[in-house]
Design goal:
Blueprint (H helix, E strand, L loop, with lengths): L1 H20 L10 E3 L5 E6 L2 E6 L20 E5 L4 E3 L12 E2 L5 E4 L2 E6 L2 E5 L5 E5 L2 E4 L1
Parallel strand pairs: 1-6
Antiparallel strand pairs: 1-2, 2-3, 3-4, 4-5, 7-8, 8-9, 9-10, 10-11
Length: 140
């Protein structure tokens, strides 16, 4: 019995390592993902979706007077209502998120994101959201 249990544990470990080595294989099943360019990272937090653009050439909207943190790279929306830029001192993602390949979609809790070579478009239940890319951040 001990040998059988040991073999199962070794197999499970190998399967887990394969899952880590191929993060793009499960992007549609996770709460965090990034675009293939590695420029946009997104995460689902309870009832909010946040996406950050790492490098941008777009002009950000005017900074709110009460924002003392980074501005113009982070965007958030709830399941309902408008999307908005957020004043943030942190960043979404690291390097281990699953890749949401071009032509693929991600859906969770009333949000839908489509990854295309032209950018990442995410919408909520109200059809509000954004299209993000290096050269433009358009909220609608």
């Amino acid at each position: 019995m001990k040998r059988f249990t040991r073999e199962i544990l070794i197999m499970l470990g190998a399967i887990a390592l394969l899952g880590l080595a191929m993060p793009g294989a499960k992007a549609q099943e996770t709460n965090e993902f990034k675009t293939p360019s590695n420029n946009i990272n997104c995460a689902l937090y309870e009832q909010a979706l946040r996406c950050d653009v790492r490098e941008s050439t777009a002009k950000p909207p005017p900074r709110p007077k009460d924002c003392e943190l980074d501005w113009g790279h982070a965007f958030e929306m709830g399941v309902r209502g408008k999307a908005a830029p957020v004043c943030a001192g942190d960043a979404v993602g690291g390097n281990n998120e699953a890749v949401l390949g071009y032509g693929k979609s991600w859906e969770r809790q009333g949000f839908r994101c489509n990854s295309e070579p032209t950018g990442l478009t995410c919408v909520n239940k109200d059809g509000r959201g954004w299209t993000l890319k290096k050269s433009e951040q358009r909220l609608f």
